[in-house]
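Q: I have 285 residues here and want to know how they pack in 3D. Can you give me a structure?
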Amino acid sequence: MKKINLAIQKSGRLNKESISLLEKAGIKFDNFKDQLKVDCQNFPLNIYFLRNSDIPRYLSDGVVDIAIIGQNLIQESELNIDEIMNLNFSRCRVSIAIPLNMKYSGLKDLNNLKIATSYPNTLKKFLSNNNLNCEIHKINGSVEISPNIGLSDAVCDIVSTGNTLYKNNLKEVLTIFDSQAVLCNSNNFDLTKKEILDKLIFRINSVLRAKQSKYILMNVPNDKIKTVSSLLPVLKSPTVLPLEMEGWSSLHTVIDDDKFWESIDSIKEAGAEDILVCPIEKMVL
């Protein structure tokens, strides 16, 4: 039986969130600590645990079929890799930062600077597109310390919270692009494995929809059900169940998590009471 080979980060934040996603999608595997490859027990999938920087090349060369990696790595690799879907975790941005005491009023202030980075291809393309002449100093780690030791004037690195920059007396002045984890494959993906890939995507989508949604239930006077229902940004019409208390019903539905607080005041004003909000484990459409 054919299997899909999936690459994920060997260690780090992307590793933990990738494993969590696969487990929530019902894919079972064990004994993955300190192993390069594990076989899944209940799905035709092999998981390869690789160094983050090696994954694009493994993917492009066809050693693995698909991968979970950051868009920042795809951009930097300049390889033939196709993004299948966004996964909405490990969000960050590739940005340029300078010392706190350095003046910055626009792109022109970056001209002729020495910039340290782990993303030389990304930076080179950005500088070329903006007609900037800078010296690129490639560093594989701890980029943020380079201005403090006189190695560079500025840095170009991934930024999540900005705390690391602040601790090294740097300020973020320009975002080159935003990044997040994505599921991707190479241009030479084996189409005979597409059915397996489609099943995996279906499972992942079910998990992602659930993560972004909440199940809510509330008690509503019968004469207010139509009004309350019209205020709910839901997938379909809500479920209405009569309560033992005469003239009242329980209204159940699913709502986007980020839209709940936008709607709660109007829902209460329309007559809803005893509103409960519950997480959803899976959501299959």
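Q: Anything worth noting?
A: The first strand starts at residue 4 and ends at 9. The CA atoms of residues 30 and 38 lie 8 Å apart.
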